[in-house]
Amino acid sequence: MSDWVRRRWRWSNCTAPPLSTVCSSIWVAGWPATRSPPTSPWSRRFREHLRARPISARYGTISPHVSDTVTGLLRGCTDRPLLICDDQRISYREAQRRSAEVACGLLALGAGKGTHVGLLYPNGVDFVVGMLATARIGAVVVPYSTFLTTTELRTQLRDSDTEILLSARGFRNHDYEQRLAGVDTPCLRHVLFDLPRADDPRLSGFEDDLDGCDPLAIIYTSGSTGSPKGVVHTHASLIGHQRNLNQIRGLTAADRLFCNSPFFWIGGFGFGLLATMVAGATLICSNSSDPGATLDLIEAEKPTITNGFVAGIAHLTRHPSYPDRQFSARQGNLYPVMAPDCRPADQELRHNMLGMTETGSVVLIDADDGDQPEQRRGSYGRPAPGFETKVLASGELCVRGPYLMQGYYGHNREDCFDDDGWFHTGDLVRVDDDGYFYFLGRAGAMIKTAGANVTPDEVEKALATLGISAHVLGLPDPVRGQLVAAVIVSDDPVDIEAVRDRLRRMVSAYKVPRAFTVCRPADLPTLSSGKLDMSGLRELFDD
Known about the structure:
Domain AMP-binding enzyme C-terminal: 469-531
Distance between the termini: 61 Å
Largest sheet: 6 strands, mixed
Number of domains: 4
CATH topology of the largest domain: Rossmann fold
Number of strands: 27
Organism: Mycolicibacterium porcinum
Number of helices: 15
Radius of gyration: 23 Å
Helix content: 25-40%
Structural class: alpha/beta
Mean pLDDT: 85
GO molecular function: acid-thiol ligase activity
Strand order of the largest sheet: 2-1-12-11-13-14
InterPro entries: AMP-bd_C (IPR025110), AMP-bd_C_sf (IPR045851), AMP-binding_CS (IPR020845), AMP-dep_synth/lig_dom (IPR000873), ANL_N_sf (IPR042099), ATP-dep_AMP-bd_enzyme (IPR050237)
Low-confidence stretches: 1-65
Strand content: 15-25%
Shape: globular
Domain AMP-dependent synthetase/ligase: 78-409
């Protein structure tokens, strides 16, 4: 067992199957209704159960690991573009060559199977090359959000036991060289702003040693149940899940996918980047702060399918040239940048999707991307292949299956799953008679803004360090889904802009409240029980 496993993997039962088991059979309909899974999921009885339920031929097989996936694609489409990001381009052939050089560079630094290698990059070629290089030697990819403050980055570097960090020098107004100069964690040995390159004959041996149940990535949540947690996924689980999802949405090698999700979160990493490579397609994305330049890119590169967060492209529709643009995409969910005849008259009559880091991206989806009957208004589709679901009496959605995460890094198994192997998502849903799911909200007070989760408690604590008592909540917003809002409790006037400016140095930008109001302690709305009236708090913003 490698050092990183001894150091942090604290649950007793490994939750990853041998590769031969994963590749030969997989859940399609889930567990038998009459039997709970054994406590040790990959026990002999469990493997026999899997073998008794072969995967449907239409979902194919799971590719063992990322390097094999890219190598296989190069045999048939070596010069096809893998990524187009603004003025950056890289083909599958070039990605194979450059990632081999960087993989050898990592080996020269002492990296190997199980080494945790962090990536601090915006979407682009360096992220792709760094990710592939790390995966090819069996090291574990740890992507970091470009939004992180110094404190947040230090916390995640320490939590993940990252040993090597590959980083951009900066991005937009972020100076990572300066930010990382003061970061010191016990495991961090190298911080590199230039990708390491070398020639090492050992590379093929490391690639041959890869196994589908090896960890591929530790991807941090945006904070769905408190502080962000590192979610561990294996090669086989992430790649196999994306293969199934590609079959459902029809993503093939002929497609060009426009995705506005960042690669450091699961939507971009799994449903965007990995899905593109599994299909052999081309991924198109943009980091430009100029909406005109992004519109130029979309119009010139002619994507056939889209996915991501609509809130992330809302600014494009306000550009003066938007009405005259010619869009080509005919599938996906970024309707404003799709062909006009493919946009819904009523978006609520198109299936939405529900995904999370723990499920390796989307878990509720539907292949029918056309308008639905009125009774399916607001539908999120049905469970993806390989996932069994149940809904508790409270309405909370629970899931389990082979594409589910291994667990949270550094946490005990019981912190992640219940005794029967179910993961409790915290999402409240209902299911209709036809098996379609409808999202009702979060079990807690979590705020979901532009696809990111914000914990009110985290923002309240940050404000408290500034000597400010506040209550943080989410307000409905047509563009972002919810806005982060704060009710500051004070008898005295408050300089809101000064508070906002100081808060930006403490938490990620998307966690900084966009709406503030000040309320005297005596005027705080309360219930008859004396507890805070959250509905009353929201009404304070009505004016």
